[in-house]
Amino acid sequence: MAASLYLVAGKTTDSVTHGFLPAAARLGLETVLLTDRPTAHAGTFGGPVVDCDVSDFREIIAAVGRGEPAAVFSNSDFLQAPAALAAAYFGLPAKDWRAATRAKNKALMRRHLASLDPVFSADACRVPPDAPYPLVLKPREGVASEDVFLVQDAAELATRRDEIAAHRDGPLVAEEYLPGRLHTLETLGDGRELRILGSFRTTVSPPPFFVEERLEWTEPPPETPAVLEQLEAMGVGFGACHTEFVVHEGRARIIEVNYRLIGDHCDFLLADLLGVPLFEEILKVHLGAPLRAWHARERRHAVAEPVIADRSGKLTAAPGPLQMDDGPVRLDYRPQRAVGDTVALTRTNRDYLGTVRAIGPEAGEVDAALARFRDAHDWTIA
After folding, report:
1. How far, in Å, CA of 181 to CA of 215, rounded?
2. Domains of the chain: which residue ranges?
3. Domain 4-94: which topology?
4. Other C-beta atoms within 10 Å of 72: how many?
5. Looking at residue 65, what is its pLDDT?
6. Per-residue b or e along 233-251, where b marks 16 or more CB atoms closer than 10 Å to that residue's CB
7. Which residues contact 286 (CB under 8 A, 6 or more apart)?
8. Which of 26, 83, 93, 165 is most buried per CB count within 10 Å?
9. Which residues contact 302 (CB under 8 A, 6 or more apart)?
């Protein structure tokens, strides 16, 4: 009988549907998908789908208890801690649930890292008058730049806070704005070794919003050891991790830690760049295998560039999935919205209509191929 992978998921994502589930099949694993959205996943996964309150580790344990688990795994921001607790219950390799909780809860993260990198952070309803404005207002456990705003003073803070409260529950935090060049650090650990997979240089939209507009492959900056020190202090060292940080005047400061694989199709770009079956390698770590040696590929340039909606309405024209070569540049496009979808402009990463990934020998060739691709295709919102 094949070993069983219990994959814990919330909403459907391309990372799971086109990444981890096919990878599990290639590894010969029998996958059981535990989710609180079974109808959505039943349309994308042909294996067993179990309806489960995946936010509660006790419910995951009860569902997994019906079988013989080889691994309990999740790639969801929100589900790292419950999945880790469930895996630990069965004695399986897992992330430290405390580290997963710190990474998800931005207030806990700031408190835990205060001795290494003090950053002003307060409950958004209890910001003192002498707070170091401008501040970044954000959900304490948010994702995808949703409801994240730069606020200049107490009056703007109150206005934005009321706007968010009108459509969202949950605590908000107000953090010191950290200036600098925005980078990511992509890592994978097996509990003994933490390996740097690479880094992207991120371009974001003008304030007060923080929409990621472009990610460009680059060498990790010289200040990266400070980020690794902070990750170690948080207890991050197992499985995949996607960390966002800024570098300013020679100092690296963490913005947030996402204790899972990078998303928005940069995971597929990362796999292409490394030339390894990345999704399989991540699953193998959760099965107890050590990281294997990888041969570095020749240096190439790569960019992930989302197509971002500029208005609300119905998407009436857009390309489907595409793969093509433009000279020496390999282009991949995967839609995130389908023709006919209604788009409500949010000024967040949820406004992505699709993402173009491009890999080539030189930056100039990649940028030119990206420009030609976008000129040759239409995305129309009526």
Report:
1. 12
2. 4-94, 97-119+178-297, 120-176, 298-382
3. Rossmann fold (3.40.50)
4. 30
5. 80
6. ebbbbbbbbbbbbbbeeee
7. 71, 72, 73, 87, 92, 93, 94, 239
8. 83
9. 216, 217, 269, 272, 273, 357, 358, 359, 360, 366
Contact 243, 102 (CB under 8 A): no
Q: What is the pTM of this model?
A: 0.95
> So what's the pLDDT on residue 295?
80
- Secondary structure of the chain in HEC code, one letter for each residue: CCCEEEEEECCCCHHHHHHHHHHHHHCCCEEEEEECCHHHHHCCCCCCEEECCCCCHHHHHHHHCCCCEEEEEECCCCCHHHHHHHHHHCCCCCCCHHHHHHHHCHHHHHHHCCCCCCCCEEECCCCCCCCCCCEEEEECCCCCCCCCEEECCHHHHHHHHHHHHCCCCCCEEEEECCCCEEEEEEEEEECCCEEEEEEEEEEECCCCCCCEEEEEEECCCCCHHHHHHHHHHHCCCEEEEEEEEEEECCEEEEEEEECCCCCCCHHHHHHHHHCCCHHHHHHHHHCCCCCCCCCCCCCCEEEEEEEECCCCEEEEECCCCEEEEECCEEEEEEECCCCCCEECCCCCHHHEEEEEEEEECCHHHHHHHHHHHHHHCCCEEC
Predicted pLDDT of residue 339: 96
What architecture does CATH give domain 120-176? 2-Layer Sandwich (3.30)
CA proximity to 252, closest of 224, 232, 215: 224
State which residues of the chain have pLDDT below 50. 1
Terminal CA-to-CA distance of the chain, rounded, Å? 52
| 4 HSE (CA, 13 A, CB side) | 18
Check the CA dihedral 282-75-183-267 and report its sign: positive
pLDDT of amino acid 1: 43
Ramachandran sector of residue 236 (left: φ over 0; alpha: ψ -120 to 50; beta: rest) = beta
| Within this chain, domains 97-119+178-297 and 120-176 share the same CATH topology | no
What tokens appear for 212 in the block? 């990621």
Topology, domain 97-119+178-297: D-amino Acid Aminotransferase; Chain A, domain 1 (3.30.470)
Query: Would you state the pLDDT for residue 2?
Result: 60
